[in-house]
DNA sequence: CCGTCGCGTGACGGTCCCGTGACGGGCACC
DNA sequence: GGTGCCCGTCACGGGACCGTCACGCGACGG
């Protein structure tokens, strides 16, 4: 749930933007002034910033520059002025995009998504690797480490581990695992899961007979304990 | 000197964009069709792409999607249509920005700068020499060294190695490799990849039967291990 | 304490995936 | 026209992997 900060002095516009973008799935904080925005952003850094240029007190350009000094959060300007000079000045100040009021919410939302997609790359990379004790799972590389050494998993074992990892701590029934790992049309022997769980344990558990992470929940299924 | 690729079928607009942006310091290549753009981009990847939506043959949306499959180069749409639906569709297809003709060059240039600033973090610039054990890859010179001695790779083998190197450690499926090495429109036999992987191994691996770097991930594809 | 149920595990045959050699066509260069 | 070089296709063989089965053991309930 990405956090969005709206800086806009007009109450009606601020509210309508807020409602529209909350519908799009953002967690929105809105403030009427640049000063309040900086305080808010320092306290709760946002993932995206929407800023009006015409603000009382510190104006939008200064606000952008101040934000830039705090970090490299994506900034979109929403302005009533459709003027090349303003666009250039805002972008030079450090904004990432500039849209003109009245804004089409669909377009604004699409621009925010595009920007987030672009920004997420350079931002602090989301560590795709997941750890469970000594087990380190790297979906990108298709490999698994047990402590320091790499262990080789077959495709089915790997998927099985991934599915369990996706629902860490939760118990998954054999049928659920059949659905997710093997496909939706498999109604075969549920014992198949047991066999692969066993094979998986032999590879990723120090003591396969007394598993520390790939655990059996008798009568229900299996779970991965962190 | 950033490389810019312009895709625009109108000769006059293409030329004026080219001249204006060369003034801004870009090294410009321009083409009239999406097909030509894809060929050009595969041969000489650009740092930025400017694309018109209304193109003869493959349209701008498909062009954007095809570009996206090749890499994450920043893409700016320049269109005569000022329509929210088009903006949303273009951004959803993978574009980064959308400006409406007639464009103010100053604004376009500022938007390109803002985009480059944002993208440069994740974008891999300066393709330097890369090493993988005894394998030394020099994309600029188009040559590969195994230990001290230079080995001759064919064009296809070289591209294959480069694509794997660009995503070191990550598994690439046969289809992904077909897309990036052979072209987006190849739906032919995926086994083709296997053959070239084999030929590549014979040249860059000390023991081709037990490859140390060009590794198979059974059921998924291939990866290059560092 | 015993029967039953659920689960772990070893063995095995079949299947599919991948490596490889062979072959013909296209292209550039001589 | 000849001659390599390179590429794409095909077929074959081997081995990794998968699914099934059967057996045995430990956990529960009566």
List keywords for this structure.
homodimer, 226 residues, alpha/beta, Rossmann fold, Arc Repressor Mutant, subunit A, five-stranded parallel beta sheet, four-stranded antiparallel beta sheet, elongated, DNA-binding
How much of the sequence lies in strands of chain A comes to 15-25%
**Radius of gyration of chain A from CA coordinates:** 25 Å
Strand order of the largest sheet of chain A: 2-1-3-4-5
Can you tell me the CATH class of the largest domain in chain A? Alpha Beta
Largest interface: A-B, 29 and 32 residues
Class computed from helices, strands and strand pairing of chain A: alpha/beta
3D structure, described in words:
The structure is a homodimer of 226-residue chains. The first copy, chain A, has 226 residues and is an alpha/beta fold. Chain A folds into two domains: 3-122, Response regulator (Rossmann fold); 130-224, Winged helix-like DNA-binding domain superfamily/Winged helix DNA-binding domain (Arc Repressor Mutant, subunit A, Orthogonal Bundle), CATH 1.10.10.10. Chain A contains eight helices and twelve strands. Chain A has helices spanning 11-23, 34-43, 60-70, 84-93, 105-122, 155-166, 174-182, 191-204, and strands at residues 3-7, 27-31, 48-52, 75-79, 97-100, 130-132, 135-138, 143-146, 149-151, 172-173, 214-217, 221-224. In chain A, strands 2-1-3-4-5 form a five-stranded parallel beta sheet, with helices on both faces. In chain A, helix 3 (60-70) links the parallel strand 3 (48-52) and strand 4 (75-79). In chain A, helix 6 (155-166) packs across helix 7 (174-182). The longest helix of chain A is centred in the middle third of the chain and has 18 residues, at 105-122. Chain A starts with a strand and ends with a strand. The interface between A and B is medium-sized, with 29 and 32 residues. Chain A binds a DNA duplex (30 and 30 nucleotides) through residues 154-156, 188-189, 191-192, 194-199, 201-202, 208-209, 216, 218-219.
